[in-house]
Design the sequence.
């Protein structure tokens, strides 16, 4: 469109804008609010998603925790209130009977939440820390970031019941000197010497972990604390395409059959479905993005219609001017393009201002919430979404500009020149 690059065209457009500044501002405000709402809500939803992904980045999304509790219903000769005890063999049964399970890690612990803490000493230094008995399978569900030079529990540790351990950052600081390398060193766990093979960086691997945890092989744990085949709880991850709610139901139903509890006894087996929580959070944020899209488009559309109405008034006010232009040789196409470009400029200008202020608002929110415990970070809108919104405004601006443009073209030069 040659007229788009004509200097006179742009001079006329900006003269028209300056001539009616208040009207121009009120015209643009609808489009501005629409794009601002869209950027703000969709960015906030992305910030929520990013925040929870950051908080639980080390643990599988479709994961859950399952433990045994007391029965609440009599069944098969057993009375109410019987304590269920999970066994190591339960893990194999669950894996065989529920194909949606990707990984399952039996876990034991000594000293969680301050109960019967393991007594850990090294020379004259000592402390009380939680000691976990784990399998290497656990890292397939909750990734453990090990500092350079170290490692996590491996299969040989399990098979040979090795006295090795992985300690936490705080445990290292409290039991080792600042410049001392803990790898290869020894600590004493309840009177037994364990060699340190790794130091893990705390990153929130689940609701039972903290920065002072000590991990030892599951087989060594049961020998140290005489737990036999008992398991405190299972950490389980389902495949990404599995329905985590149904998997949880199948797991609890299978465990109820194994331990002979009533099929309807929901209290016999406890669980925490992290995957279900993830799905609810992401479903909420997806709904928020969709809502922002609907509200934003509706507001933008209302604003664009307002621009069309104002341009119709503008065309009527400029009847004599348009008549003079037609009399001097301006073609209907040139008049039409002039009005369409004006509509497009107003629409895009309002949209760009809305995008800039929306991004600034998100940046402010990010600075106020960043660095804390609140699960919210990097509330940005993907570039394709922004470009898509700009394209929508271009299309709507052109379409709405056609109405006043056609009105301008329909004015006959002789009638326009006669108008007082």
Sequence:
């Amino acid at each position: 469109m040659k007229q788009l690059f004509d200097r006179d065209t742009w001079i006329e457009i900006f003269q028209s804008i300056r001539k009616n500044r208040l009207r121009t501002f009120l015209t643009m405000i609808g489009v501005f609010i629409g794009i601002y709402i869209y950027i703000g809500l969709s960015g906030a939803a992305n910030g929520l998603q990013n925040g929870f992904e950051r908080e639980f980045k080390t643990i599988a999304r479709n994961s859950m925790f399952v433990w045994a509790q007391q029965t609440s219903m009599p069944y098969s000769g057993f009375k109410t209130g019987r304590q269920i005890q999970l066994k190591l063999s339960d893990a194999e049964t669950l894996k065989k009977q529920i194909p949606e399970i990707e990984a399952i890690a039996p876990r034991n612990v000594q000293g969680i939440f301050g109960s019967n803490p393991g007594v850990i000493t090294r020379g004259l230094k000592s402390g009380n820390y939680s000691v976990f008995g784990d399998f290497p399978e656990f890292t397939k569900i909750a990734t453990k970031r090990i500092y350079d030079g170290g490692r996590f529990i491996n299969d040989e540790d399990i098979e040979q019941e090795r006295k090795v351990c992985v300690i936490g950052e705080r445990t290292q600081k409290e039991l080792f000197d600042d410049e001392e390398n803990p790898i290869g060193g020894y600590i004493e766990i309840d009177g037994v010497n364990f060699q340190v093979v790794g130091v893990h960086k705390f990153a929130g691997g689940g609701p039972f972990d903290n920065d002072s945890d000590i991990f030892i092989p599951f087989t060594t744990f049961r020998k140290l604390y005489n737990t036999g085949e008992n398991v405190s709880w299972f950490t389980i991850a389902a495949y990404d395409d599995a329905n985590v709610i149904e998997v949880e139901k199948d797991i609890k139903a299978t465990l109820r059959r194994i331990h002979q509890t009533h099929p309807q006894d929901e209290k016999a087996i406890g669980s925490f479905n992290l995957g279900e929580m993830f799905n609810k959070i992401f479903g909420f944020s997806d709904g928020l993005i969709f809502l922002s899209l609907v509200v934003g488009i509706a507001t933008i559309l209302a604003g664009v219609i307002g621009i069309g109405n104002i341009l119709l008034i503008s065309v009527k006010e400029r009847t004599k001017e348009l008549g003079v232009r037609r009399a001097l040789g301006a073609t209907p196409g040139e008049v039409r393009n002039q009005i369409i470009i004006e509509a497009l400029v107003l629409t895009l200008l309002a949209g760009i201002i809305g995008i800039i202020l929306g991004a600034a608002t998100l940046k402010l929110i990010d600075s106020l919430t960043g660095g804390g415990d609140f699960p919210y970070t990097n509330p940005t809108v993907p570039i394709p979404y922004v470009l898509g919104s700009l394209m929508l405004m271009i299309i709507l601006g052109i379409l709405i500009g056609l109405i006043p443009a056609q009105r301008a073209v329909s004015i006959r030069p002789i009638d326009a020149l006669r108008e007082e």
